[in-house]
Amino acid sequence: MDQNDWDDRYSTAEYVWKADPNIFLPERAASLRVGRALDLACGEGRNAVWLAEQGWRVTGVDFSEVGLDKGRRLAAERHVDVEWVCADVTTWQPPNDGYDFVVVFYLQLPADQRRRAIGVAARALAPRGTLLVVAHDSTNLAHGTGGPQDPTVLYGPGDVLADLESLDIDLTVERAETVERTVAGAERPALDCLVRAQR
Length: 199
Fold this sequence. Notes:
- The chain is α/β, with parallel strands linked by helices.
- The chain has a single domain, classed as Rossmann fold (3-Layer(aba) Sandwich).
- The protein contains seven helices and seven strands; from the N terminus they run ααβαβαββαβααββ.
- Helix 3 (46-53) links the parallel strand 1 (36-40) and strand 2.
- Helix 3 packs parallel to helix 4.
- The longest helix is centred in the middle third of the chain and has 14 residues, at 65-78.
- The protein is globular, with a radius of gyration of 16 Å.
């Protein structure tokens, strides 16, 4: 899907996804010292807004201005401030001072584009900053529920680790695995790729 496709998808009055944070975010954020956070490919901004509610100074980046407008609306409703940046996450240049927490949720791209986006995310980290990547796992197509049906945009922990290893950045991987996510009304869980690393 390109920028216009996402603009169309986000053009509804309601949120495409609920306005609550992703299920994996609160637990992973709880152990971190609050600082600067980056939500890369933030979509409608639900994770960025939640982080701001917890006291983080947050930047949300996405190429859909329509999605960002919904993030602005949600932030206003929740009385928090978020810096919103309309940019392509595969080419955006993060500031030099870096972020203490960088999240990339369900950014489903072909391998070459994904590699560039993961590079942007890793380079955005401040020293001792934490990176959290969550995506529809490549095994979800055959063994899970929902998610994209195009195998070229699905990936697993090994793919993310290879992306990170290709960078000239000193990272310690704290977790890299396929995890289950309960889906209401589904007979089986969704399977997600989850990778957490620290610079």
